[in-house]
Automatic annotation (TrEMBL):
<dbReference type="InterPro" id="IPR003960">
    <property type="entry name" value="ATPase_AAA_CS"/>
</dbReference>
<dbReference type="InterPro" id="IPR058017">
    <property type="entry name" value="At3g28540-like_C"/>
</dbReference>
<comment type="similarity">
    <text>Belongs to the AAA ATPase family. BCS1 subfamily.</text>
</comment>
<dbReference type="Pfam" id="PF25568">
    <property type="entry name" value="AAA_lid_At3g28540"/>
</dbReference>
<dbReference type="Pfam" id="PF14363">
    <property type="entry name" value="AAA_assoc"/>
</dbReference>
<feature type="region of interest" description="Disordered">
    <location>
        <begin position="332"/>
        <end position="358"/>
    </location>
</feature>
<keyword id="KW-0547">Nucleotide-binding</keyword>
<dbReference type="InterPro" id="IPR050747">
    <property type="entry name" value="Mitochondrial_chaperone_BCS1"/>
</dbReference>
<feature type="region of interest" description="Disordered">
    <location>
        <begin position="487"/>
        <end position="512"/>
    </location>
</feature>
<dbReference type="GO" id="GO:0005524">
    <property type="term" value="F:ATP binding"/>
</dbReference>
<keyword id="KW-0472">Membrane</keyword>
<keyword id="KW-0460">Magnesium</keyword>
<protein>
    <recommendedName>
        <fullName>AAA+ ATPase domain-containing protein</fullName>
    </recommendedName>
</protein>
<dbReference type="InterPro" id="IPR003593">
    <property type="entry name" value="AAA+_ATPase"/>
</dbReference>
<keyword id="KW-0067">ATP-binding</keyword>
<keyword id="KW-0812">Transmembrane</keyword>
<keyword id="KW-1133">Transmembrane helix</keyword>
């Protein structure tokens, strides 16, 4: 071969190589852009068509937790309630029973014994809606066997309901039927609703992001109502009006762009009715009560988890807030210290985690302030936050400023009006008129001599202690008069009324 031919071949091979590289690049892009789409569209469509012929059924699952297991799912609860109706249990062979009857003393025997039945795991039930048949089943994914021992999230069973239906009913089921199920479920929930008292003193749920059961609960059945609470009638009326405004304030809160919540601060000496007031509020509004035991909450993050798991129409109570946390202004942490705390809080693999579990709460003031009106406080609606304290002066002003604590209520020692109220409640309507002399003495001691006695003590002295005292209330009133006389004597013997400064610290009397 001569040189010309060789060089021609050389050039041609270079051109072919360049073309091959270009073609490869174009081909790859075509594959990515068009061919993949082409195959995806055609192949998947055919596969779906084939699947529809073989199995024309579709399904929807309702998992117990949503938002990355952070929050229990409302839809799951609604479906669960819907499935407790006759439709949801018809023909089911294995049922699950839960107490759903009222625990109130005044409930009928039938109501008290009522059980709420739902289908057990693994069962299936059919439901017919406007000619379409659907099937509900209850199931759970077993915990992973290889789960790391300290991760409760992985070890937990994931419960869910599954709805199966024919493809031809798709629009009807996903539209009208599911709306019908949710609506009906909410109705059942409202009907069976048993008010609850929740507490966070529970071992469950405190590990590695496992959010179930951070609250444990008992039925809430406190007998105290506003008409059994001794206090200034005008003040009581004002509180009730405030609660009514709050309860009916959905539209108002939306209009002004405020989360639908309200803070109450109840302060006063021990035994003046602060906890009782919380029960009366809950009974009046028919709300659940979440009793936050802050000393059991170890970090700000844990406090937030508890907040997320509270439901609407509830009162979140922090009793004796001044004793639960170090909230004094002087002991307020610096921004740096707070930041260090936050970093510790958010690190799930913190090596000192075990030690942290046993040490005291490290919830900080800023954690609590964020709880009350930070971004997370707006999740959920129609909730009251109530703080109670014996020493309002010990609280940081930031905690009780308007917007956080919107209404401050002072519960005070018993005055004569409250005494009459308590006497009638304990001893009958005509006791004051029947024992005028004794009652006049009580009035003089409470009003003229300014003797301080908490309603809890007044009530205790007035309580009949023997069957005889049920016939004659004189000894009850005498006992109260004696106690008031004694209290007066003690007050005159002691250096004088204690003066408490705004920090809640008892001041020494000025001596001349
Ligand atoms: N104003 C009141 N009217 C009727 N009963 C009252 C009143 N105050 C207290 N009592 C009765 O006294 C008991 C104790 O009251 P309560 O626990 O509400 O006091 P408290 O202010 O929360 O006390 P503490 O500061 O020690 O927590 C309750 O059983 C309640 O029935
Ligand atoms: Mg109390």
């Amino acid at each position: 071969m001569d040189d010309n031919v060789l060089s021609w071949f050389g050039q041609a091979s270079v051109v072919v190589s360049v073309l091959a590289v270009c073609w490869t690049m174009i081909w790859q892009n075509l594959q990515h852009i068009h061919l993949q789409q082409f195959f995806a569209r055609n192949f998947n469509r055919r596969a779906r068509r084939l699947a529809a012929v073989v199995d024309p059924y579709l399904s929807v699952t309702f998992e117990e937790y949503e938002g990355g297991r952070i929050k229990s799912s409302e839809a799951f609860d609604e479906v669960k309630s819907y499935l407790t109706t006759a439709t949801g249990t018809a023909g089911v062979r294995h049922l699950r029973a839960e107490c759903g009857g009222s625990s109130r003393r005044d409930a009928s025997a039938a109501d008290k014994d009522k059980l709420v039945l739902s289908m057990a795991k693994g069962e299936e039930v059919a439901d017919v809606f406007e000619g379409a048949t659907v099937w509900w089943s209850a199931a759970a994914v077993a915990p992973r066997q290889d789960a790391v021992p300290w991760s409760r999230a992985a070890r937990a069973e994931r419960r869910f309901f599954r709805l199966d239906f024919h493809e031809k009913d798709r629009d009807l089921v996903l539209g009208e039927y599911l709306t019908h199920v949710r609506r009906k479920g909410r109705e059942v929930m409202a009907k069976n609703r048993q008010r609850r008292l929740y507490t966070n003193i529970s071992r469950e749920g405190y590990d590695d992001g496992f959010y179930r059961d951070v609250w444990t609960h008992v039925p809430f059945d406190h007998p105290k109502t506003f008409d059994k609470l001794a206090m200034d009638p005008a003040k009581k009326k004002d509180i009730i009006a405030d609660l009514d405004m709050f309860r009916n304030g959905k539209e108002y809160h939306e209009r002004v762009g405020k989360p639908w919540k309200r803070g109450y601060l109840l302060h006063g000496p021990p035994g003046t009715g602060k906890s009782t007031m919380v029960a009366a509020m809950a009974n009046y509004l028919k709300y659940d009560v979440y009793d936050f035991e802050l000393t059991s909450v170890k970090t700000n993050t844990e406090l937030r988890k508890l907040l997320i798991e509270t439901k609407s129409k509830s009162i979140m109570v922090f009793e004796d807030i001044d004793c639960s946390l170090d909230l004094t202004t002087s002991k307020r942490k610096t921004a740096k210290e707070e930041e260090a705390d936050r970093e510790k809080d958010d690190d799930p693999l913190r090596p000192d985690k075990k030690a942290a579990a046993t040490k005291q709460s490290s919830v900080t003031l800023s954690g609590l302030l964020n709880f009350i009106d930070g971004l997370w406080s707006a999740c959920g609606e129609e909730r009251l936050i109530v703080f109670t304290t014996n020493h309002v002066g010990k609280l940081d002003p930031a905690l009780i400023r308007t917007g956080r604590m919107d209404k401050k209520i002072e519960m005070s020692y018993c005055d004569f009006e409250s005494f009459k109220f308590l006497a009638r409640m304990h001893l009958g309507d005509d006791v004051v008129e029947a024992h005028r002399d004794r009652c006049d003495r009580v009035r003089a001691l409470l009003e003229d001599e300014e003797v301080n006695m908490a309603p809890v003590d007044v009530g205790e002295h007035l309580t009949p202690k023997s069957p005889d005292e049920l016939e004659d209330f004189g000894p009850c009133l005498d006992r109260l008069v004696d106690a008031l006389e004694k209290a007066k004597e003690e007050a005159t013997r002691s250096p004088g009324p204690q003066q408490v400064d705004e920090q809640g610290i008892v001041k020494e009397d000025d001596k001349e």
